[in-house]
Amino acid sequence: MLDKQSPTPLYNQLVDLLIRTIQTSMKPDDPLPSEREICEKYGVSRTTVRAALRELEDLGYIYRRHGKGTYVSALWKEMKNLSEFYSFTEHMKQLGMKPETRILSFETGVANRSTAERLQVAEGSAVYRLRRLRLADGMPMMLELTFIPVHLFPGLTLEMLQSMPLYDLYAKRFNQEIRYADEEFYASLVQDKEAELLGVPVGSACLRLVRTTYNQDNRVIEFTLSAARADQFVYKIRHRRK
Fold first, then answer.
1. CA distances (Å), 234 to each of 58, 94, 150, 230, in order?
2. Phi and psi of 113, rounded to 5°?
3. How does pLDDT run across 156-212, given as a tens digit for each residue?
């Protein structure tokens, strides 16, 4: 159950609890209880439940069917490991296209258990939450949700993020050089809120990427979830035989 005396926000506790429930006792496409049922079961407000469900949707654990309810996603079980560094900006430049980034939101929060594990920080640690739309020649290509540990980037501001590409900012303003990134990717379908921003119909094919980036000291400096348009975005990998 939830601990209302804990310094960890209730919605973060609820996210962790629902993730454990999904992983241990639910199958893909199983329906989740309604918002009202979750409120009653755990003694929390509808605002708390909605915040938790938005987080679960962003993390790929659930999906919504308009007018029908919320269901367990199969996608979190289907991730494939890939060790490869990727830069959207550099990729688009190599293709002769003009990259553009629109910051949709930037806020500071606390890490729930799942995010904390990804970032290798303590649960409840302060994190930045950055949502961006990536475009090439004016066309929406990718949506990104990035979590960044505050203690490695104290004083990070929206103005800084708007001044230069994120990876350049890491190096030039915070002396955080990227050494490598672990990436997972899998096929998926675009959800309602993503479709509007990407300019494609709901249910269109997309490529989802989950990237964990490490600095020169092998410390995690970001965790990013991306959804890329399958009709415009090509992901190339070169494997070398050793």
1. 22, 13, 32, 7
2. -60, -45
3. 999 999 999 888 899 999 999 888 888 888 888 888 889 999 999 988 888 898 889
C-alpha span between 242 and 231 (Å, rounded):
33
* 193 φ/ψ sector (left φ>0, alpha ψ -120 to 50, else beta): alpha
Report yes or no: 222 and 174 within 8 Å, Cβ to Cβ: no
User: Tokens 């890329």 correspond to what residue?
Assistant: 228
Length of the chain in terms of residues written: 242
Which residues is 231 bridged to in the sheet? Answer: none
Q: Are 130 and 226 in contact (CB under 8 A)?
A: no
For residue range 36-47, what is the model confidence (pLDDT) as tens digits? 999 999 899 999
Which residues is 206 bridged to in the sheet?
188, 229
Candidates 63, 65, 50; CA nearest to 22 is: 63
Residue 184 token pair: 């997972």
How many Å apart are CA 228 and CA 140, to the nearest integer? 9
Q: How many CB atoms lie within 10 A of CB 76?
A: 19
3-state secondary structure labels for all residues of the chain? CCCCCCCCCHHHHHHHHHHHHHHHHCCCCCECCCHHHHHHHHCCCHHHHHHHHHHHHHCCCEEEECCCEEEECCHHHCCEEEECCCCHHHHHHHCCCCEEEEEEEEEEEECCHHHHHHHCCCCCCEEEEEEEEEEECCEEEEEEEEEEEHHHCCCCCHHHHHHCCHHHHHHHHHCCCEEEEEEEEEEEECCHHHHHHHCCCCCCEEEEEEEEEEECCCCEEEEEEEEEECCCCCCCCCCCCC
Say which residues have a Cβ less than 8 Å from residue 118's Cβ, sequence separation at least 6: 147, 212, 220, 223
